[in-house]
Write a structure and sequence with these properties.
The protein is an alpha+beta fold and 251 residues long. It is 32% helix and 26% strand.
Length: 251
């Protein structure tokens, strides 16, 4: 039917008229079928039978009405002859109409019409395209790049200092590694040992003061005084030695 009916959506078939002329012997048997199949091939949406058996040839014209059947339901149409005889000057005319409410939105008066809601157009804002945002991003990028460069410079300086220190410490013949004053002071400090009873622990209890000083003065310890004088003398000797060494280097 696609080559017979318009291809417009919403088309409905509401009538059919066919006409043809039979050529036959009056005594012979003849049956004519005028028909249309369903578009899906499930049978016939229209079929009419004309029995011409025992009748002379003649012209027939018939009209049929349909309850506005959707054109998409109609498949191929045909006229078939069963028996002796033939059909001439056959024609089939379809009556159709267009359903104006096939699309309910085509007319506000159609059933199922829905009022259109106008959606306002909202402009899409891309913050990355904003000039101020771009300038702020560029400023932050420059700050970050500067901080990264400062961090790299700090690491390079630390690496250089570390390598120089390793080279200095690795040279055992370098006289700058030995400080006579520091060496003498270290020997003086390590030569003194604490009494063994210093390492003993005290019982875990509270001790109350019971010493009463007469006159309010504690006399100096002669041994401690001699020790202090010896340390002071040693220190003075080391300072004098360092001063004489520096004077000789200056000369």
């Amino acid at each position: 039917m696609t080559n017979i009916l318009p291809s417009q959506a919403g088309l409905e078939i509401n009538g059919l008229v066919y006409q043809y002329t039979t050529v036959k012997d009056p005594e012979s048997g003849m049956i004519v079928y005028v028909q249309n199949e369903y578009a899906d091939g499930s049978g016939y949406i229209f079929r009419n039978v004309d029995d011409w058996s025992g009748l002379p040839g003649n012209t027939v014209r018939k009209k049929f009405a349909f309850p506005n059947l959707n054109a998409e339901l109609w498949g191929p149409g045909s006229i078939e002859v069963e028996g002796e005889g033939s059909v001439e000057d056959a024609s089939v005319v379809y009556s159709y109409r267009y359903d104006t409410c096939f699309d309910p939105q085509s007319d506000p008066s159609c059933p199922g019409y829905e009022e259109q809601v106008e959606v306002p157009e909202i402009p899409i804002y891309d913050p990355l395209q904003d000039q101020l945002v771009q300038e702020d991003m560029e400023r932050k990028a420059r700050i970050q790049e500067q901080e990264e460069e400062e961090e790299r410079q700090r690491r390079r300086e630390q690496w250089a200092i570390s390598n120089a220190l390793e080279d200095l410490l690795g040279d055992g013949d370098n006289p700058g590694l030995v400080d006579p004053v520091a060496e003498a002071m270290a020997l003086a400090l390590t030569s003194r040992t604490l009494p063994t009873d210093y390492y003993y622990g005290l019982d875990g209890r509270e001790y109350f003061d019971t010493v009463v000083l007469e006159g309010g003065d504690i006399p100096d310890n002669p041994s401690a005084r001699r020790s202090n004088l010896a340390q002071q003398l040693l220190h003075q000797q080391m300072v004098d030695s360092q001063y004489e060494s520096s004077q000789q280097e200056t000369k």
